Amino acid sequence: MGASIEMSLVSSGSDLLESSFVVDLHLHSNASDGADSPSRVMERASAAGLKVVSLTDHDTVDGLEEARREAGRLGIEFVNGVELSSSHEGRLVHILGHFIRPDAPELMAQMSRYMEKRKNRMAEMIGRLLAMGVMIDPDEFMLEFGNAASIGRGHLSAYMVQKRIVNRREEVFEKYIGEGGAAYVELDMIEPAEAVRLIALAGGVASFAHPNLSGADEIIPDLIEAGLVGIEAEHLSQGDDDRRRYRDLAEQYGLVLTGGSDCHGAKPGPERLGQCRQSMGSFRALQSRLVSSD
After folding, report:
1. What average pLDDT does range 170-191 have in this prediction?
2. Coil, strand, or helix at residue 197?
3. Residues 217 and 98 occupy one common structural domain
4. Closest-CA residue to 229 (of 256, 210, 248, 249)
5. 2 within a domain of the structure (yes/no)
6. Do the Cβ atoms of 125 and 177 come closer than 8 Å?
7. Prediction pTM value
8. Backbone angles phi, psi at 287, to 5 degrees
9. Do 281 and 151 have their domain in common?
């Protein structure tokens, strides 16, 4: 009887752990367009009570080693991640990669290509802003942000707030560099299926990030054929109807439900980090897809 009770308690504890929502697999640092260093992101994750996290900077893995060291110090399980940019018929599609090998040759080559393209794109956007009469000092901007591994619009918006050209970062996108804005320059990107393939070649599992923002649900079957494993149903941009739709699609296609806050750093307002979590059980399901694909 005593052994039976003991086994029951162990089982209950295991079930409780698996159902705990302590995983955030979508975080950004200043290696791309986040505000905080990789170490600081891990400190904030620990303070939020997270047990498993992944740093998923845009088109770069430069912050992973620093984040891993700090996560280890804090007792957090750390997962190598990246968020690859892609496009389909003019629509931006972000593909998350988890458990990747950061030094995988084809992935590294694509990130290097993106780095060069991003620098050229930034120069063109700044040129357009100057032509519109927006007073930006290109040399000053590049001195502060030019060494970022994945320079992007987030850096430009941060600079413009810092110089009081606008009052908030969102205003920069609304007025100037949002998709379709007068100073917006499209980044030449790979197709989503190619992003999925690169993640698989790097030993990782691919998930469709915040799919409602892409408005490209029709490509999901093609992505699955390319090796897609998960879909980010839990994201702050997605309302209840969106989440139900992606849960249904996950069930239909056998995809793992993922979730993450997509936090880019502390700012005035409610804390975003950890607000969209996934359960430990869902995380283990994602991890099991990695094992079964080896």
Report:
1. 92
2. helix
3. yes
4. 256
5. no
6. yes
7. 0.86
8. -65, -35
9. no
